[in-house]
Amino acid sequence: MNSEKVSICIPVFNGKKYITQAIDSALDQDYENIEVIVCDNCSTDGTWELALKYHNNDKVILHRNKSNIGMYANFNHAAKIASGDFIKFLCADDTLAKSAVHKMVNMFHRDSRISVVKIYAHDINTEGAIISSEKFRNSGIAKGKSLFKQSMLTLSNKFLDSPSHLMFYKNDFLAINCFPTTDSYHGWGNDMVTFLQLSKNSLVGFIPEHLLHRRIHEAQYTARIYSSFSLLFRANLNTINMLKERKAIGPMTRCYLLSMITLITPLAFLIKRLWRSKFKA
Q1: Pairing label, strands 166-169, 86-89
Q2: Degrees to nearest 5, angle at CA 238 with 232 and 240
Q3: Theoretical Cys-Cys bridge with 161: which of 151, 156, 165, 210, CB 3.0 to 4.6 Å?
Q4: pTM here?
């Protein structure tokens, strides 16, 4: 029997096209002690009606907000509903490999100082075909402080990546007040700021296996940001301001990051646009 409970949280807004695939992959885990929380942010496309088909499943908890509370607030609400020891977010257009949760929990058991565990992803298109695979940038156990410093050099979250990649302790997430709730196109660094906070003074476990299928499509949050240079610049600026507000960086680091985004944002914009253009399908 698996002792620790894992809450697989699926926040969603207008995710009708892929929501059942996400829920089914969560329920198909070979780790028994799970709950699957679907937190619908007032969808208007029939997402909620599809989710209701799971209402008789004892492992599924369905919640629908009375109004749209914003993307990151919806993530936070899903975590607060959770009763598990661990939080495993799953974006509503992604899916997990059958052994993902089990292997992530086992990684936590390797060292009590691990606060975050990461898996890697195959990128898939709208039809589910694999179009690329993440490189294993890290494996085993790494110091969070070292990852934090590397991330600050480039204002990059490639070491920890997206909510779907990670698992962490629920109490740790609540202790840092969850995700900042800045939304619109200015808030894409919310998860980066939070994950760096979670791992800064502890260890991070990396599993060098592709246990996540991350869907690439034009309706994605990040795709909308990369559609405009000004949106990308403001997103980077907002990330720096959130790091400052949460006292994760000092004045010198903030000045360095402000100078850096002025120089690298144009290059990052062009590279990402070219990369994403290959995957339109």
Answers
A1: antiparallel
A2: 110
A3: 165
A4: 0.86
d(CA 75, CA 178): 9
Task: Please report the beta strands in 30-185, taking only residues with DSSP state E, as ranges in sequence order.
Answer: 34-40, 60-64, 86-89, 95-96, 114-124, 130-133, 140-143, 166-169
Q: How far is CA 245 from the centre of its chain?
A: 21
Q: Which residues of 95-107 are buried (b: 16+ CB within 10 A; e: fewer)?
A: bbbebbbbbbbeb
Pairwise CA distance, residues 273 & 268, whole Å: 8
Residue 32: what are its φ and ψ, rounded to 5°?
-80, -40
SS3 category, 278: coil
Contacts (Cβ under 8 Å, ≥6 apart) of 137: 158, 159, 206
pLDDT tens for the 281 residues of the chain, in order? 568 999 999 999 999 999 999 999 999 999 999 999 999 999 999 999 999 999 999 999 999 999 999 999 999 999 999 999 999 999 999 999 999 999 999 999 999 999 999 999 999 998 999 999 999 989 999 999 888 888 877 766 667 788 999 999 999 999 999 998 865 444 557 888 888 889 988 999 999 999 999 998 766 666 565 566 677 777 778 888 888 888 888 888 888 888 877 777 666 666 665 655 655 54
Give whole-number Cα distances, 189 to 31, 116, 168, 221, in Å: 31, 18, 18, 11
Task: Tokens for 115, please give them.
Answer: 């606060």
